[in-house]
Write a structure and sequence with these properties.
119 residues, mainly alpha, 76% helix, 0% strand
């Protein structure tokens, strides 16, 4: 499969772009992971007393954080307290912004690479 990639210019371009922006992407995903753990911590303490079956511990609450940051929203675990709902709204907004950031970085680099190949 990887040997076939050298014959396709588009796959080579994708590889170049991701390789060039690897440090930015790693940084963004590192920040995202850190924010997910922080939001799991806060959500656990906001909801654990109200929903002990849904929010067992901070690592179980990490599932809620992952689903909320990615805006998938399965609905299996959700906040019922006022502070939990406010925190959930903040997490969704931060998640949208942080997932849009790598997209814009990669798009800008794809445009640079495309213009370079065009010249």
């Amino acid at each position: 499969m990887f040997k076939l990639a050298r014959y396709f210019d588009a796959l080579q371009m994708i590889g170049k772009v991701i390789y060039r922006k690897r440090y930015e992407l790693i940084s963004i995903f590192g920040v995202l992971l850190l924010l997910m753990f922080i939001s799991s911590f806060f959500m656990f303490y906001a909801e654990a007393d109200a929903q002990p079956n849904a929010f067992h511990n901070i690592l179980d609450t990490f599932w809620w954080s992952l689903v909320t940051f990615t805006t998938v929203g399965y609905g299996d675990v959700y906040p019922i307290t006022a502070i939990g709902k406010v925190l959930s709204g903040i997490v969704v907004l931060i998640g949208i912004m942080l997932f849009a950031l790598p997209t814009s970085i990669l798009t800008a680099e794809f445009m640079n690479e495309f213009n370079k190949d065009k010249k």
